[in-house]
Amino acid sequence: xxxxxxxxxxxxxxxxxxxxxxxxxxxxxxxxxxxxxxxxxxxxxxxxxxxxxxxxxxxxxxxxxxxxxxxxxxxxxxxxxxxxxxxxxxxxxxxxxxxxxxxxxxxxxxxxxxxxxxxxxxxxxxxxxxxxxxxxxxxxxxxxxxxxxxxxxxxxxxxxxxxxxxxxxxxxxxxxxxxxxxxxxxxxxxxxx
Length: 193
Fold this sequence. Notes:
- Helices cover 54% and strands 12% of the residues.
- By secondary structure, it is of the alpha/beta class.
- A 5-stranded parallel sheet has the order 2-3-1-4-5, sandwiched between helices.
- The radius of gyration is 17 Å and the shape is globular.
C-alpha cells in the first residue's frame, strides 16, 4: 500500500466518520476514532468525555496560557501533547485510519500518510445530523456553524494552519458525490493504483 496511514478530518454531519469506517473496512486496517479517544484518555489520565469534546472546547486565552505556563501547562495543552503521542504510536504500529485530532498535522513529517478532509453542503449536513445521528437542535444551521467554528479554532490553534483548507490535505471530498464514491476513491489512492 502506498499510503498505509490515512487521516480523515471532517465537518460535523459530513459523513466523514462513515467514510473512515468504510475505508478501514475496505483496506482491512484498524480505525482509530472512538478507540483513539480511549487510548488518549488512558495516556493522559483525563476522562473519555473530556477527551472526546476537547476539539470543540474554547481554547483558553493567551494570557491565561502564559499564567498557567509558569506553573503547569493548561489542561488543553497537556491533552494535545498526550493525543499527539498516541497518534504517533498507533501510526507506528502499522496501517490504520485516524479520524480527526489534528492527525494530519501530527504526522506531517511522514511521507506515507494520505491526508483527507471530508465536507458536505450545509443542507445535507443538517439532514444527516437530524435524521441519521438523531441529534435534536432548535437551529441546526447555528449548531453546525458553532461546531465548525470550535473545530476550526482548535485546529488553527494547535497547527498554525487553517482548518479545512485544501492546502493541508492530499484529498478533499464533498460527500454530496456519494459516500461510496468517496470511499472508493480514497481506497484507490491509498493503494497507489
